[in-house]
Amino acid sequence: MIEAVGLTKRYGAKTAVYNLSFQVRPGTVTGFLGPNGSGKSTTMRMILGLDSPTSGHATIAGRPYRQLPNAPRQVGALLDAKAVHGGRSARQHLLSLAQLSGIPARRVDEVLGVVGLQDVAGRRSNGFSLGMGQRLGIAAALLGDPQVLLFDEPVNGLDPEGILWVRNLMKQLASEGRTVFVSSHLMSEMALTAEHLIVIGRGQLLANMSVKEFISANSADFARVRTPDTEPEQREKLTAALGEAGGQITPEPDGALRVTGLPLPRISDLAHAAEVRLWELSPHQASLEEAYMRMTQGAVDYRSTADARAGLQEAPAGYAPQGPVPQGYAGGPGHPAGQPGVPGQVPAGVPGQGQPNPYAQQAPGAVPGPGHPPPAPAQGHPYGAPESYGAPHPYGHQPAAPMPPATPVAPPAAPADQPTPHHEDAR
Can you tell me which residues the record assigns to a coiled coil (predicted)? Predict the structure, then answer.
């Protein structure tokens, strides 16, 4: 069993973990959840003696990790799958760990088979993919056949088959009476793997309960009810009956009703009493992800914002502009709907009417209106985008009319005792 009592860890002025207390019991997969920066990895490091707590303590089987006799035989951990010497093969890495802990060499080949790396055991680990590195880290955690296991993001980089394998492995280890403590950001996977949850936010304990209790306590269950679409009067009759019974009804976009405050049997009885036929009556329970987001929404330190430059990107060719129609497009200011605007012409009612728009491009083959200069030669993309096939490069265009030869002007001679200056054009 893992036990944390009043764990607090400060790094200067920042408090990573504050007064954290919990227990991880054997025989159950316990999930460790929290937003980025909430202190999950710091807590695991303090449990394993890698970081010393500012106050409080953590024990494994009643002792601090550093006081456990031959700790690798009792505790296995995966905190960083990249903590491997890149020049060593998978077998050499595990063999060195086994020799340090007094583990028989035959155990190395056993765990390589368990994690599926027996065919690449002789390859150097620096050529492993992210998923293969995760498997090697899990093999190192299983090497001593420990009774306590800690995993930090064990499914990171694994394919669907690997994720299913890790899920079944965690459940099997817990069914053998071992203590399994798993940290992960994949809510859907944690809902299928863990039976108990410990949730922290900004270093403090938010929840310590079973998965079912956590979802029930942090979500609002509701019933989804649907009446025949061809009989709207039945929908209105049911809405009135449910409202009189104390239910809260919210229409769904597809025509169904979301009902809260009434259990499903009561909804069925009310519909029967009102002689309303039901096409659907189904319960809805929030997912672990929904419950988790609802609980931790106030403990998130890193939030994304909308991209301010998203509206500045040029729309692909062939797509109509979305949102408010810009000036110069069909339906814009000065252009009635259904009549395309003239590229390069400032619409009526806009200052500078009748003057060409210097920022608009003329349509290919378009005849300039009165008062407009002829279109300039087509220029290439300013960042070097490829031109159409057969078109000359924009910097190779010749002027329409020949220019008179310029009178050469001899540059002034540089003094003999000073070197000729070098500048960018001289290169």
Answer: none
Domains by residue range for the chain, with CATH: 2-216 (3.40.50.300), 219-293 (3.30.70.790)
Helices 106-115/130-142 angle, 10° precision: 140
Nearest to 117 by CA among 169, 184, 162: 162
Closest CA to 380 of 397, 360, 401, 394: 394
3-state secondary structure of 120: helix
Convert the pLDDT of each residue in 228-264 to its tens digit: 988 999 999 999 999 999 999 999 988 899 998 898 9
Q: Are 225 and 267 spatial neighbours (Cβ–Cβ below 8 Å)?
A: yes
> Residues 30-78: pLDDT tens digits?
999 999 889 999 999 999 999 999 999 999 999 999 999 989 899 999 9
Please state, in angstroms and rounded to a whole number, the distance separating the CA atoms of residues 276 and 389. Answer: 68
Model confidence, pTM? 0.65
Residue in 394, 358, 18, 342 with CA at minimum distance from that of residue 201: 18
Q: Choose among 291, 274, 167: nearest CA to 219.
A: 291
CA distance 117 to 133: 10
| Calpha distance 420→66 (Å, rounded) | 71
Q: Alpha-carbon distance 255 to 410, whole Å?
A: 85
Q: What is the C-alpha separation between 101 and 84, in angstroms, rounded?
A: 17
